[in-house]
Each structure stands twice: as structure tokens, then as C-alpha cells.
């Protein structure tokens, strides 16, 4: 049975997606294999699909791959090739995080509107979370 993913596991899976080569087709099955190989735990497509961050990250990486231009096969020294791969991964991470941030801001606006509509005051919204000791 596949394990439930922690926040760290979800971030690690998103990191695997950020490093996905743009010249390799991305499928759920390939992601499951990559997670098992890179992160060392076995999971299923269904488990990964349950998490919105992973699902959205996969969608964004697929967009990047499909819209990406094929890389020119220049004969680069190994150190430059590694640097280029790191830059590609950083670019993919930035694009995915910008989209995730946009979705979170959109969700925040929905919550803000609903709170206003239901008469929730800013003081009520800013009430701190209870301490674990005081529960």
C-alpha cells in the first residue's frame, strides 16, 4: 500500500518535477518511477494525484515541456552542461512556484471576499492560532 505523503514528501516530489528534463516525456507512471528512484519510496499515481501541489506542478511542467524549444546539441564541457542543467531546473522551479503563488493569491481573494460577505472582521481573521500547550 502506498504511504501518505508528508509536506516534505510533496515538496520533494515537486523538486523532482522541477528537475525533469525538457526533452523527456512526462507521464504519471514515469513520475512514480522517478520518485521511487530519486526519493527512495514507492507510491502510486493515485496517491500523487490526490495532492493539488503535485497535480498542479505536473501540469505546469508538462506545459513547459510542450512549449519548450528543443535544446541545441552543442558539445559543451561537462561543467557547463551541469551548470546549464541547474539553470534549467531553477527556471522550471521559478515558473512552477509563480503559478502556485498565483493560485494561492486567487484562493486568498476568494476567502477574503467570503469573509467580508459573511461579516467576519479583520480582528477575527487575525486571531492567532492556539498554542499546543493550551488546547
**N-to-C span:** 34 Å
Average pLDDT reading: 86
**Rg (CA only):** 19 Å
Number of domains: 1
Q: Strand share of the residues? A: under 5%
Biggest sheet: strands, sense, closure? none
Strand element count: 0
Reading the helices and strands in chain order gives HHHHHH
SSE-based structural type: mainly alpha
Name the shape in a single word: elongated
Question: Helix count, per DSSP?
Answer: 6
User: Helical content, roughly?
Assistant: 55-70%
Unreliable spans: none
Keywords: Coiled coil
Task: Describe the fold and architecture.
The chain is mostly helical and 135 residues long. It has one domain. It has 6 helices and no strands. The protein has helices spanning 7-18, 28-39, 45-49, 52-67, 78-117, 122-125. Helix 1 crosses helix 2 and helix 1 (7-18) packs parallel to helix 4 (52-67). The longest helix is centred in the C-terminal third of the chain and has 40 residues, at 78-117. The two termini are 34 Å apart.
